[in-house]
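Quick sanity check, Solute carrier family 13 member 1:
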Amino acid sequence: MLALAGVCRSNQSSMEAECAYTLFVVAMFWLTEALPLSVTALLPGLMFPLFGIMPSKEVASAYFKDFHLLLIGVICLATSIEKWNLHKRIALRMVMTVGVNPAWLTLGFMSSTAFLSMWLSNTSTAAMVMPIVEAVAQQIINAEAEVEATQMTYFSGSTNLGLETDESVNGHETNERKEKTKPVAGYRNEAGKISGKMELEKNSGTGNKYRTKKDHMMCKLMCLCIAYSSTIGGLTTITGTSTNLIFAEHFNMRYPDCHCINFGSWFIMSFPAAIIILLLSWIWLQWLFLGFNFKEMFQCDKTGTAKQKACAEVIKQEYQKLGPIRYQEIVTLVLFIVMAVLWFSRDPGFVPGWSALFSQYPGFATDSTVALLVGLLFFLIPAKRLTKTTPTGETVAFDYSPLITWKEFQSFMPWDIAILVGGGFALADGCEESGLSKWIGNKLSPLGSLPVWLIILISSLFVTSLTEVASNPATITLLLPILAPLAEAIHVNPLYILLPSTLCTSFAFLLPVANPPNAIVFSYGHLTVIDMVKAGLGVNVLGVAVVMLGLFVWMVPMFDLHTYPSWAPTIANETLP
């Protein structure tokens, strides 16, 4: 019997080592991107059956979960929103609402971008808003050039008699004025005045050209505002970014008896933190690039200088190009509102939700049920009629086109993320089956001697640092199977560590390669890596500080984090070989 027990223990240790090896290989490939992330995510499907950790059928079932159904429904909504330009109408309308003051204009772009990224992917939001921002920035710079050109014409004495008198009285002062309005080197000077049609050369070897340093700083500010707000907005909803979805699915799989994480509870938990981070980031970026001028920042007048009026005009023109709101946009907006309301009202917590109507099937209907219900409607509701002309010359309708087609859906569906997330689920299942999670938990149990707040801070800072060099989905997928056993080993509510770590996974603000929105705005040529590092470091610090503040102010009472829950397993310390 003793010999048999020894053999079993040896086999168990071997499985733990083989699973750890698989985890190490996948982690290295994710960090170095030697293979595409989604290809690396397929390795558990190959290695687990060969090592005898899990049968191939069980590994394959991990690659398609409830998460994927939720993702499909959300992508149906995003496809329709972008196809019918509803996202552009929302963004421009929100920017028009805040006025033309530079500080408030920046906040308007940040607010609209953050709102869109709550429902669309961070990448598509940044890609959509940046051309609008670029047009506004060009118009501002061109407007200043036109104003200075007009002033230079006045100074030359060809228009304003008052200025002619000044010139005759004090020629030296006129020369000084002309000297001040000389064009900056590298810009055209045609017929004695600055051309108002400056060209911003993107991604060229000569770099961008700006009239003044302030213009350059303004372009940097607006670019970074879009990149950071698209990431911050994604924090607020479970569907806002893939890291939130991965956490929710992993958590619900590991702790099936806990029903505390859903769309409504996540929104209530993360929305205040996202708002605070957004406002502090706005102030930080404003101070870093344009200086912190209270009088200018908080001047809410709707009029302004010629530059501000020109800015307002280009936004107005972009909005007018959209024309009146169309039937397709109205239907998409209605379905969008219906989806959000059903998500919030499914199980709000403080009152019974509509899921109580199906009390005989508790827990059967999830957020993915809502997403699929609304998503299917996009394929059923007609967008326009298809007509043809008969031989007699009569036009008749013979079919209709739905709001979205399958080809359009396929072009938007992030299959790489779907496979990547599936690989993460397979890794988590393998860690459980092999006993690696239990082994890690026992080895990490000595950390229980540290204060809980210090453990949370260390894990948050570690996650924030790692996500700068690895993709956000890969980071959260890699660390969840480690952090959850850590919380269990030190007898702390798993949400206490997992919630701040998940939020901090999105704080990839330092480098252009840290996440796609950063790369998109960097490609416009206004920024250098040093610019992004300086700005991103401040936003990272603010983000971690706000998450820690929110954790102890409202997340602890909301989820009763000081109590070890009954739905989490109790791990007794064991001596393992």
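Posting the structure with no commentary besides this: Residues 1-9, 158-208 have pLDDT under 50 and may be disordered.
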